[in-house]
């Protein structure tokens, strides 16, 4: 497989402590396809974690399809994403997403999340006073 089509290991979130950190300090943005939770990672590139529960889809085939679509959407939009750790969670239980719509929503929500983090850090620097 050509290397440009791969999803390299440095772009994965695998450790429970990384997931916990994102859930604990991360900001959230919800769309019609996915819920995005993200936190800056200081690595210079984005990383992806997936959370696709059995509560939503009982069949592994559907869960795996959603994971594949989310991974591919992330891979296609990596250059447009800020250096955050992202956890993607399906927003609509009965909606099997397609890649094109997921890419568009992921980039839109990542921009929104980045703005939230920038606003919060600006407020921290000014002592909570916004102008």
TrEMBL record:
The keyword Amino-acid biosynthesis does not apply. It catalyses: Endonucleolytic cleavage of RNA, removing 5'-extranucleotides from tRNA precursor. InterPro entries: Ribosomal_Su5_D2-typ_SF (IPR020568), Ribsml_uS5_D2-typ_fold_subgr (IPR014721), RNase_P (IPR000100). The keyword tRNA processing applies. Pfam families: Ribonuclease_P (PF00825). Keywords: Endonuclease, Hydrolase, Nuclease, RNA-binding, tRNA processing. It comes from the Bacteria. One of its GO terms (molecular function) is ribonuclease P activity. Its EC number is 3.1.26.5. One of its GO terms (biological process) is tRNA 5'-leader removal. GO terms for cellular component: ribonuclease P complex. RNaseP catalyzes the removal of the 5'-leader sequence from pre-tRNA to produce the mature 5'-terminus. It can also cleave other RNA substrates such as 4.5S RNA. The protein component plays an auxiliary but essential role in vivo by binding to the 5'-leader sequence and broadening the substrate specificity of the ribozyme. Belongs to the RnpA family. Consists of a catalytic RNA component (M1 or rnpB) and a protein subunit. This is Ribonuclease P protein component.
